[in-house]
Amino acid sequence: EVQLLESGGGLVQPGGSLRLSCAASGLSISSYAMYWVRQAPGKGLEWVSGIRGSGRKTYYADSVKGRFTISRDNSKETVSLQMSSLRVEDTAVYYCARDVVGGSHSYFYGMDVWGQGTTVTVSS
Amino acid sequence: QSALTQPPSASGSPGQSVTISCTGTSSDVGGYNYVSWYQHHPGTAPRLVIFEVNKRPSGVPDRFSGSKSDDTASLTVAGLQAEDEADYYCSSYTDSNTLVVFGGGTKLTVL
Questions:
Q1: Tens digit of pLDDT per residue, chain A (124 long)?
Q2: Do B74 and B82 contact (CB within 8 A), yes or no?
Q3: Residues in contact with A120: Cβ distance below 8 Å, sequence separation at least 6, in sequence order
Q4: B44-74, pLDDT tens digit by residue?
Q5: Which of residues 59-78 of A touch B (CB under 8 A)?
């Protein structure tokens, strides 16, 4: 079965850290840009971060810049999101997703494969 | 406040058509043909229904179509069915340093 599997979510106190992982199963992600998208309770989807297939270029939403770091290990077909200085407003379901178009490009075409999400709760 | 503007709600009766708009700027929707649309049922993973303005992934019914005029993109769902009731989000490439912007979402109700 083709799927992305997120893990690493949980309960953390404000100011704490958490590392999310996304593993590919039944599909390759090594040549694709990968993204993290979140949905806070009662809110819409919010794009969080992205990384090119090579890993050499990363992108962040202003709301997480300087606190979150995206990385990837193409040999293991995994993508990670290191989250630090967490805030209550970071509470959300976090999804990883793959770009529609693989290979080397500089754009965002859309996200065609999504994981089921992992829940992050930031609370004291 | 989302970077792309969508109406919060839309509705239609079974068999009817409904169109959802998504307004951005020349830095995103208006400047590039990289608009995508997602269907999201609560508790499930979002589903891509349109990419590159008007392309459908395999498995998406041709009842779903996309278009764009200037800074506004649109998603049309024809022949509404009960299972089309969901939240719909647009997104776009942006030439700002963030790469991607989303709309705030539109809740589609099938009456």
A1: 889 999 999 999 999 999 999 999 999 999 999 999 999 999 999 999 999 999 999 999 999 999 999 999 999 999 999 999 999 999 999 999 999 998 888 889 999 999 999 999 999 9
A2: no
A3: A9, A10, A12, A18, A20, A38, A83, A86, A90, A91, A92, A93, A94
A4: 999 999 999 999 999 999 999 999 999 999 9
A5: 59-62
B101 neighbourhood in chain A, CB within 8 Å: 47
Residue found by looking up tokens 């993508």 in the block: A79
Choose the closest CB to B45 out of A44, A95, A109: A95
Instruction: Give the tokens for residue B64.
Output: 């779903």
Separation CA A66–CA B72 (nearest Å): 32
- The answer to whether residue A117 neighbours chain B at the CB level (below 8 Å) is yes
The amino acid sitting at A94 is Y
Query: To probe the interface with B, which of A45, A59, A106 has the most B CB atoms within 10 Å?
Result: A45
pLDDT of res. B97 = 85
Please work out, in degrees rounded to the nearest 5, the angle formed at the alpha carbon of residue A89 by the alpha carbons of A85 and A90: 60
Q: How many CB pairs under 8 A join A and B?
A: 77
| Residues forming beta bridges with residue A36, ordered by sequence position | A49, A96
Position A112, amino acid:
D
φ/ψ (deg, to 5) at B84: -80, -10
| C-alpha pair distances (Å), B90 with each of A23, A47, B77, B95 | 26, 11, 14, 16
Q: How far apart are CA A10 and CA A19, in angstroms?
A: 10
Residue type, B53: V
